[in-house]
Amino acid sequence: MVQFVDVARMREWIETTGIETIVARLVDALETDFARWEEFSKCARIASHSPTGVIELMPVSDGQTYGFKYVNGHPLNPKAGLQTVTAFGVLADVSTGYPVLLSEMTLLTALRTAATSAFAARRLARPDASVMALVGTGSQSEFQALAFRRVLGIESLRIWDSDPGALDTFERNMRPLGFEIVRARNAADACAGADVVTSCTADKTNATVVTDAMIAPGMHLNAIGGDCPGKTELDPAILHRADIFVEYAEQTRIEGEIQQLPPDHPVTELWRVVRGEAPGRTSAEQITVFDSVGFAIEDFTALCVVRESLRGDSGVPELDMIAEPEDPKDLFALVSAGAAALTRAS
Amino acid sequence: MVQFVDVARMREWIETTGIETIVARLVDALETDFARWEEFSKCARIASHSPTGVIELMPVSDGQTYGFKYVNGHPLNPKAGLQTVTAFGVLADVSTGYPVLLSEMTLLTALRTAATSAFAARRLARPDASVMALVGTGSQSEFQALAFRRVLGIESLRIWDSDPGALDTFERNMRPLGFEIVRARNAADACAGADVVTSCTADKTNATVVTDAMIAPGMHLNAIGGDCPGKTELDPAILHRADIFVEYAEQTRIEGEIQQLPPDHPVTELWRVVRGEAPGRTSAEQITVFDSVGFAIEDFTALCVVRESLRGDSGVPELDMIAEPEDPKDLFALVSAGAAALTRAS
């Protein structure tokens, strides 16, 4: 039987545990997993593109546990009342190949993305960073704000979105939580005076949401929205004067902001910074970019945190997904009536 | 919500519809999908190997519907009372990226593999074929026998397995169904006089289960067990004097019997035979090999047949896997209590 975390159960876990507490747990778990990066067997995710979006599978294994996530990205979905991004994930036991957990991951992906952003920013943003610009205030934005408050102590936000409704929603959700929020007139206004710029827009185009002129020395760019071939947000001029950090270069060169750069442009994989093998931020003037596309290990980490939270809970629903004949070499026994039935009929 | 076909429901469908009826439906559906092969966006499956087995993801899309299967192969599993192969699959709507169906596929894979074998043999075996050797009588074998009876009218079987218990099980399951069964002394004895040789063993090694001397002119080899790097069953000498047919050459060159051959050894993709673009069997003396590894389109086809069978059935259980906020840009609304809770606590 496969443990099943449906949307209701995920919501209950998040609401009772608290978003910021879960973010903190995820950051701790990311710390552990990024430090053992080389133990994972990795590949770039497998994407199936269509005119309206993309469907991706993201598998990874640490030799003990295998995990994968199914995730889509369909920017036009909200016009039909649907989510741009939805996801579910599975953990399996490597030694037997049997799946052990199926979980909703639309909510969990929002949490893990925010946790990964904050996890990276702790090493890449200036230690005195106190103001974050949020360019794009869609479904991911509140999670980003809460993660940066928990991990970096940032409480002052400058927000911008081309959709005024998305700004209204963000303000309505976040003002009661004690953030200081400035509603900017445009993306440039949002970036002015920010220490961290989080760009998170959904259009599947090579957009220039953040231009070179908006970026000042010392800023850290948390670039989330450029995560697909043909989908970028940053002016390439920014990339040329910044130090660029990525999750898994092989995948980011296909999907990230650096798809705009030559394939040999130097980048640093974040796990090397975590292990102390490469420097993170080295000066207060440096511009750092976390060119984040989302990598399978982060989902693996998040699913393992969910699984850990279920330990000892006997009330977790289970799905009957695995056919289990009494004699494992006699699968036919499970459906033998289907052969006999036909023999009688014919 | 995602429709869910669990093991119990799959069993019920198979038992009430009949294995051979489902095989016939699958063969019709394979005919349609192989004839439109070029409409599918395809890739070799993504395998994660470990010392005890392999876990694979097999995605494919026809531009309207996306499907993938999760499947493992762990030859030592039966010693622990577990299945060698288990599987589940998902269909999704390409236009929105939303999953629509989750189904058990351990049983369904057995059916689709048998249907694909018979589908290929109808074009590659001699029209007068009446005797099949089954080398390896594990979980797949009964399904093969029923499919070949339904599609080719073969009722005479010569069986062999290194495990006498597996032979006992096969005989117990199949004798009541009207097959003429000869229990052979070894693999050579099983092949003697057979028109079709189905090899389906589980060991993850380069074995030579079927040697060159066992194979006579006019035979069709339905080679199922060689489906993984380092896992083959046929003496390569057979391959050198046979005409070889495959599902998707890119994947079969990695996983099939032809991994033993130079990468440019000529093979024919079966869909070209289906479309009349390449000949199947051309003479009674020819030796044909269907070097089958299992391809994603076959799983897609099978999942679509299952989905079709559910049409109009209002009793199909649904899983709450997709978080659906009222405002699609306000995912946070689903868990806002999780932010407020923490603010109060901190």
From TrEMBL, chains A, B:
Q: What is this protein called?
A: Ornithine cyclodeaminase
Check the record and name the PANTHER family matching this protein: KETIMINE REDUCTASE MU-CRYSTALLIN
Native organism taxonomy: Bacteria, Bacillati, Actinomycetota, Actinomycetes, Micrococcales
Taxonomically, the superkingdom here is Bacteria
- Entry's InterPro entries? NAD(P)-bd_dom_sf, ODC_Mu_crystall, ODC_N
Signal sequence span per UniProt? none
Any Pfam family matching the protein = OCD_Mu_crystall
